[in-house]
Amino acid sequence: MVRNTTNPLVTLLSVVFVMLICIGCDDDNNVSIPEENIYETLQRYDELDTFTSYLEEYELADQLTGSDNFTLFPPTDEAFENLPERLDTLSEDRFQHIVEYHIHEGYLHPDSLEEFQEFESTEGSTLFIEYSSDNSITINDRASVVMQDLDAYNGILNAVDEILVPDEFQPLSDVIAKRYSLSTMEQGLHLSHLLDNELSQPSTSGYTVFAATETSFEEFDLPDDPDELNELMEYHVVDEKLLADDLSEVQSIEPMNGGSISVQLDGDTITLNGNAEITTSDIEGTNGVVHLIDTVLDPSSQ
User: Fold this and answer.
1) Which of 59, 77, 174, 251 has a CA 20 to 30 Å removed from the CA of 85?
2) What percentage of the chain exceeds 70 in pLDDT?
3) Model pTM greater than 0.70?
4) Nearest 5°: phi and psi at 104?
């Protein structure tokens, strides 16, 4: 017979040791749930007082105290101090659009973000978010998140250093720049000086930009020659505001380079020059409209 030589005291101590390890593991896995709602969390930060006051003024605070999840991008007080003049003169009703544009219904934690993503605000317009490998977040190509991941039981706060502005209150230069899907188009318009001149200025007649998306430039490189680049970019801009309804009949449009763009209509589908389809129409800014197209317009094919 084999005798059991295990010391009972050693066995007892081993069991206790294992239990302590398990308890420690349980503590590590437990995630503490914040006790405050997202509005109460916002109120704790003095540097966000201006945004908090606007939520109260426009009676938006109550919706942030329930069980529905929200993500807030409140601008800092300093951002409000640097409010652009064109926004400072808006009526209260129109400024409410600005405030609501900083609210997203849903929980956007950085761990769930991809490099470039689009989300709808409660105002109805799109927020364009860039999440970098260093965990920094940029919104609409301008505003940086300066206070990140402030958790509440019904959402999260990410404070920004600039006011976020919907398309309807921006010139076409900003409407284009905020869209990461138009990066190459933005680069071309910038190099041809259209972005910083005509498309950033007020206009009585307005402008129409047929903006080729990033994927359409995969097989079409921007010209190195400045004259060719200007010709290409001016071929995508019309010195007149033309909404989709204005393109409802087969017609020819004269862009800024003096050439011609043909328009074909097939049901709700609008095609330019027989091969460039308008995929998103009527993105309106303060000085015109942008239509997204899936193919670069080639002026040499006129």
Assistant:
1) 59
2) 88
3) yes
4) -120, 130
